[in-house]
From TrEMBL, chains A, B:
<dbReference type="Pfam" id="PF25137">
    <property type="entry name" value="ADH_Fe_C"/>
</dbReference>
<dbReference type="InterPro" id="IPR001670">
    <property type="entry name" value="ADH_Fe/GldA"/>
</dbReference>
<dbReference type="GO" id="GO:0046872">
    <property type="term" value="F:metal ion binding"/>
</dbReference>
<dbReference type="InterPro" id="IPR056798">
    <property type="entry name" value="ADH_Fe_C"/>
</dbReference>
<dbReference type="Pfam" id="PF00465">
    <property type="entry name" value="Fe-ADH"/>
</dbReference>
<feature type="domain" description="Alcohol dehydrogenase iron-type/glycerol dehydrogenase GldA">
    <location>
        <begin position="9"/>
        <end position="182"/>
    </location>
</feature>
<protein>
    <submittedName>
        <fullName>Uncharacterized protein</fullName>
    </submittedName>
</protein>
<dbReference type="InterPro" id="IPR039697">
    <property type="entry name" value="Alcohol_dehydrogenase_Fe"/>
</dbReference>
<feature type="domain" description="Fe-containing alcohol dehydrogenase-like C-terminal">
    <location>
        <begin position="196"/>
        <end position="393"/>
    </location>
</feature>
<dbReference type="GO" id="GO:0004022">
    <property type="term" value="F:alcohol dehydrogenase (NAD+) activity"/>
</dbReference>
<keyword id="KW-0560">Oxidoreductase</keyword>
Amino acid sequence: MNQFNFTMPTKFYVGFGQVNVLREIAGEYGKKALLCADSTMGELGFLEKVKNLLKEAGVEVEVIDDVQPNPKDVDIDRQVAYFLEKGCDFTVGLGGGSSMDTAKAVAFLAAQNDGSVRDYVAGGVKSALEEVKQPYPVICITTTAGTGSEATKWFVVTDTVNHDKPGVGHDLLMPSVSIVDPEFMMSLPANVTRSCGIDVLFHAMEAYVAKCANAFTDMAALEALRLVMKYLGRAIENGKEDREAREGMAWANTLGGIVIGEGNSGTVAIHALGHSIGGQTNAPHGLTMCPLAVPYIERTWRADMEKYANLTRVFGYGEDTMSTEELAALCPEAMRGVLKKFGCDLTMKDLGVTEEMIGPMTDSVFHTMGGVLNNSLVEFTREDVIALYKDAM
Amino acid sequence: MNQFNFTMPTKFYVGFGQVNVLREIAGEYGKKALLCADSTMGELGFLEKVKNLLKEAGVEVEVIDDVQPNPKDVDIDRQVAYFLEKGCDFTVGLGGGSSMDTAKAVAFLAAQNDGSVRDYVAGGVKSALEEVKQPYPVICITTTAGTGSEATKWFVVTDTVNHDKPGVGHDLLMPSVSIVDPEFMMSLPANVTRSCGIDVLFHAMEAYVAKCANAFTDMAALEALRLVMKYLGRAIENGKEDREAREGMAWANTLGGIVIGEGNSGTVAIHALGHSIGGQTNAPHGLTMCPLAVPYIERTWRADMEKYANLTRVFGYGEDTMSTEELAALCPEAMRGVLKKFGCDLTMKDLGVTEEMIGPMTDSVFHTMGGVLNNSLVEFTREDVIALYKDAM
């Protein structure tokens, strides 16, 4: 067992109907909230529902209802100005990763009130995040089972100058409250269920075989993987009816977030390389990891055979009679089977990546995701990254 | 899955050598610490070690080195006065449950600075714990793998007037930092390893079959039980050498604490009735549950056969061919086997309980542990409690 440490300052509310807790608790965080959501939240009636609950808690509500997928630096800066202009006390992120990350970014940057979000990302003048001020409180309400943003100390922003997707991470970026209410997830279309659900799988799987993995994250990662294997197929196929599957995925997602967030394990090269695919193509985040998974496992399974053997088992492959090494060696095939099972057996070409993009994508990996890359059990040079990308085409 | 919520504000440091983190972090909590420990900490050199680390962090140290097992109300009140008189900023609890509970109690009561600890326990004039003030920070350093106090929002105090052991629980009672360094546990004698380790088993087992059990606590409780089954026997037999076993038990203990603490599951009738044995006999806390476990399981296994079947399995009993009901019905026998395996097959008589004590003990259960009792899956009337105690004689 390695030495490790973890903190979880977030208060979690998990289960059907838990959003109603807003009525009781929202008032503790201030008198005026900035509610950040994308346009579908209004169409589905969720925006109205949350707005009303906040009002019942005696909270005045300002709304941003046009959060875009993969939120851009320029939009965040505009939203920070709006938060300050309206004199808000806290933010509420309602939606998927984009809305929750927006809520986290706005609460953080409004408290600093000093420059653009671009100053705080890798390469920016304030990227060391020294002496940052305590952010305004953030309440996350996740409406997808993916990203795990409600349980992490990260937000990701699209850099419109460098065309990459750097992440900003700081202990103070943990949400104050996270509400994981599967009721919001019942109407998610199958393709969103799939791309978010597969992201959960990668959070858990990568964290399990990361350098920073520890006894706490191993426990939660394996539990998340068991839940994904049990429920993701059902949630994709029959998500409008299967409440148990939605609930299982909601919890798996939160566990995945805890593992990469306050459990301090984090993701590895799969996410590092996937982010750059997202920066170039705007493909749904969860899908960007799919082409990379098998080539990654082929390069790494020898580095910790016991763990890769456990992955093979949790993916439902292998026999009791096989040795640890045999099981570990089977892991690439098991991963291939899992991707196929969930309709995620994609190449980078399928996501719109061209050969010409590989150079800039590789630059971006080292520019913005070097720390994540180095969390892999195996070292990846620039040549290794290019080769992995090529295998994934 | 039930709705549930959890928070973990504590920052955990787990693993060999982690106590050295004090050098880096202690200064964040103030300029002067009150270090609470029992006399063995000095004998073992641990008191000196921690004092020096605090000094290296630039912290001045006041010491209480005579914490007694099952700390008394009168002692706590005296220590609170000492904390205030010396102008301390935070407490450090070094030792087992008694030292850590003392640190938590003193930090809490000094901040209130309003009356005796007896006012805050069940039946006391301030027992509703309304409008309590933020306690001074607490750093817990556990030197036993038992009690889990470093991960809970509880302290337990011996009421010298009513001869019971009420607990005081409040969200603000979570330690700021918990250090779980198995190095401190290497020299624990076998009998302490046993009584603390069996307490971990009960925390996890009871929380798993508690009314308030949830997906988060189920995961952590089963993991804790797996670790106890794997490592407790080794830690009892060869604890001076077997570092892996000590580490496994240290982590199991912390998981057990998380489960009953911020995971919000909590213990059940076994702990409720065990506390009253402790109040009457001063027997080691962990052992007080042993006589009660089998009679408790006999009365409850039908209430959730799936969970009791899982307990039977994790205890290493049953066959794959058995039905869930058959496995659940086997749980009392499995529990009996586990207690025997760890040298804990004790009757209440073995702990010094006489027939005459059963009446006052039963009174005390309802006086101080009613909430815990009601967390059981089965209802326990006064007659039920007496009958269970009699079965345990």
